[in-house]
Amino acid sequence: MTTGTALVLGATGGVGGAVARRLKAEGWTVRALHRDPGRAARAADGLDWVRGDAMVAADVVAAAAGASLIVHAVNPPGYRDWDRLVLPMLDASIAASRASDARLLLPGNVYVYGRDAGPNPGADAPQAPRTAKGRIRIAMEARLRDSGVRSLIVRAGDFFGPRTTANSWFSSALVRPGRPVRSVTGPGTPGIGHQWAYLPDVAETMVRLSAREAELPRLAAFNMEGHWDPDGRQMIAAIARAVGGRVRVRRFPWALLPLAAPFWPLAREIREMRYLWREPIRMRNDDLVRFLGAEPHTPLDEAVRETLAGLGCLSASA
């Protein structure tokens, strides 16, 4: 099993942080890039924080010297400026991967799949953009393929976990971090399934794949199954069980987003993703299971309980 030195971009975020901590636990030496490493190091997570900007190729190349794995888990917060920032940041990581001959790991998602992929797309399903962010995601994957660097793409559903950031539907819509759960805002359509991914399971999957570097093709891509909510109600039911009682369910105010867009730029970005709550898209993990034998999977109730505890949403009695 392979270990070595890994550089993580986005280690203060949900996915990057989870992967960095899991790599560290498995014996990797983990560097984390940050513009203010002193402030980031206060998390006391044992990472080797180095100064640098993910937009500056020279910074990323220098930080990646001697690394065998680069985790590109950095994104502009709140979907802002994706069209302007995402590809240049990836180009910097590609340059670092080429300079250090490191595997470049890119966390992916369902945005790359449209109607022509069907309701259960596999890792090699056709990719047709449904949204502007979908087109950017497809461009990112194409950039990796065209670069020739060794790369690994792991696509997963909507993230939730103990350190989920505001980019997650779970922590920005369903519940309010730091507050007891008395109501849940449900963005889904009753009866329509939705795919979720528990961050520790995502991190475990990525680390297990990275540890088998010698068996990976030059360009490797896998889909995760994660947690499939078949009718859009099971996640809310798990939240209710975790807090020890019934919770009131509020409908997400989709109709108000066009009115809010002039004052709240994120409203437009959120509205663009509504199709994922109106159509059941369930990515298949066949290739992943064949390669690993099984997908890391934490039971839903345990995953939800740990997530709510990490977000400060559980009382002592719960």
From TrEMBL:
<dbReference type="Pfam" id="PF13460">
    <property type="entry name" value="NAD_binding_10"/>
</dbReference>
<protein>
    <recommendedName>
        <fullName>NAD(P)-binding domain-containing protein</fullName>
    </recommendedName>
</protein>
<dbReference type="InterPro" id="IPR051783">
    <property type="entry name" value="NAD(P)-dependent_oxidoreduct"/>
</dbReference>
<dbReference type="InterPro" id="IPR016040">
    <property type="entry name" value="NAD(P)-bd_dom"/>
</dbReference>
<dbReference type="GO" id="GO:0005737">
    <property type="term" value="C:cytoplasm"/>
</dbReference>
<dbReference type="InterPro" id="IPR036291">
    <property type="entry name" value="NAD(P)-bd_dom_sf"/>
</dbReference>
<feature type="domain" description="NAD(P)-binding">
    <location>
        <begin position="10"/>
        <end position="159"/>
    </location>
</feature>
<dbReference type="GO" id="GO:0004029">
    <property type="term" value="F:aldehyde dehydrogenase (NAD+) activity"/>
</dbReference>
